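Duplicate of #3305? Posting structure anyway:
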């Protein structure tokens, strides 16, 4: 039987305008779980119909290996939402990571996609079980173990995430994607096989798979931060623990970041001033993700260059015509790793 896929029929612009005008209090949260999904297509339809009925917005990936979700839920529907999860086989008793800094405009549409994997890893090993992750550490235990000399702390996020914020003393791999990180991190960790290997990421999903992979590769003392940076920040604040996270936590929604530590540890990619606010170039044909200070935002009208600012100032119809046939994928400023010029990476995952 052919499955009919429900989806948003409104334009991106109208959806964004609608959420900007909405006064409904919302809660931004995320969750994931590695578990066997027999029919991801059917599961996607089931979730879309149920979540859309509760006016839930966000981004969800479904695959045979599980689910990865970042959502904006109306506060008046939170109880209905949690009840729905607990009544859905495979999603019972999930840990929900609540956003550190709330913004009702974190998402403006509901999009659920079926993927080959919920976290693209580039692995092809039928004996690997991503659900067999490392030992989970709560915030207090994490603070204790990372202070020990026989511990190596590894940031399992991409370079543009760790650039604006990371834990004290962490190894920060210069990687563009999660699939890039696995072999690079393994080379970094090879001399430290007898040490405690502690991994962290935004909400835990990448570390769940990474810690399972390194266990699979023979590392014995593998740990991961329970609930990632998001959960750590909330628990540390609630329990009065020392916050060992410096700067800002990058998030994959409209906010692009939430403040964890008071420090600004990165620089504007245009002028070099202290800054840690990510933005997307307002030239839709570019849409480069980069760090921009307030002064450069005004100077370049929210764009990454004078050329893009000039294009962005053109009528929408003219810009649309210029974009025809141009699909560069997602472009991210790459910290000037090629000396003397701006380097970008392009990917479509």
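Output from current build:
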């Amino acid at each position: 039987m052919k499955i009919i896929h429900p989806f948003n029929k409104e334009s991106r612009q109208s959806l964004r305008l609608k959420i900007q005008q909405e006064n409904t209090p919302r809660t931004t949260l995320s969750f994931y779980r590695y578990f066997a999904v027999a029919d991801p297509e059917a599961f996607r339809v089931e979730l879309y119909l149920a979540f859309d009925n509760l006016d839930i917005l966000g981004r969800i990936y479904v695959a045979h290996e599980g689910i990865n979700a970042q959502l904006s839920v109306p506060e008046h529907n939170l109880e209905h939402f949690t009840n729905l999860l607990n009544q859905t086989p495979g999603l019972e008793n999930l840990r929900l990571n609540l956003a550190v800094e709330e913004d009702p405009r974190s998402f403006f549409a509901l999009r659920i996609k079926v993927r080959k994997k919920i976290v693209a890893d580039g692995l092809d090993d039928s004996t690997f079980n991503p659900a067999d992750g490392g030992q989970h550490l709560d915030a207090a235990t994490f603070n204790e173990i990372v202070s020990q000399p026989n511990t190596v702390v590894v940031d399992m996020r991409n370079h543009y995430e760790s650039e604006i914020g990371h834990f004290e003393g962490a190894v920060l791999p210069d990687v563009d994607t999660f699939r890039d990180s696995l072999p690079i991190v393994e080379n970094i960790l090879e001399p430290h096989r007898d040490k405690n290997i502690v991994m962290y990421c935004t909400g835990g999903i990448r570390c769940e798979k990474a810690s399972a992979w390194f266990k699979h590769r023979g590392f014995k003392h593998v740990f991961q931060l329970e609930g990632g940076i998001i959960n750590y920040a909330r628990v540390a604040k609630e329990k009065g623990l020392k916050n060992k996270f410096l700067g800002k936590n990058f998030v994959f929604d409209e906010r692009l970041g939430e403040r964890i530590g008071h420090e600004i540890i990165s620089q504007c990619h245009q002028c070099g001033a202290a800054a840690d606010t990510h933005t997307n170039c307002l030239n839709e044909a570019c849409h480069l993700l980069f760090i921009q200070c307030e002064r450069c935002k005004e100077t370049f009208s929210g764009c990454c260059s004078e050329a893009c600012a000039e294009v962005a100032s053109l009528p929408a119809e003219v810009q649309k015509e210029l974009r025809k046939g141009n699909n560069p994928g997602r472009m991210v400023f790459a910290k000037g790793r090629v000396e003397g010029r701006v380097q970008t990476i392009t990917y479509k995952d």
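Confirmed duplicate; merging threads. The chain has a mean pLDDT of 88. Residues 12-114 form a domain with the Alpha-Beta Plaits fold (CATH 3.30.70.100).
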